[in-house]
Amino acid sequence: MGRLLAIDFGQKRTGIAVTDELQLIASGLTTVNTTELLSFLKNYFQTEKVEKVIIGEPKRLNNEPSEVTPVLNAFVEVFRKTFPTLPVERIDERFTSKMAFQAMIDSGLKKKQRQNKALIDEIAATIILQDYMTQNRF
After folding, report:
1. H-helix or E-strand spanning residue 53
2. Backbone angles phi, psi at 109, to 5 degrees
3. Which H or E run contains 16?
């Protein structure tokens, strides 16, 4: 069994989370500059077996696509051409950044640490992955 990898796509930064090989635990992996995302993923996929990629899909409260959606759609198209054998699923990511920020508060991180937007993106990716895992357990 391979890992699941989740992406919290952003125009500047992208948070990434992965599971263990048994797909039991979701953990934050890193945050990368979005311009370097494909390069990072190519390197990661060479060293780790990934079974599926889950990409957060940003939506507004009224369920309409957000302003980031066209950029994300273009990325997904390039991703699928670059990694044609790797399945991709998209999952609603509404509120994950707010949930990530609240998780940082709940864990006792100081105000200065909570201002680290890269950490928020990584935690948001972990929440996306955990949500996916919860929805797809039998």
Report:
1. strand 50-57
2. -65, 140
3. strand 13-19
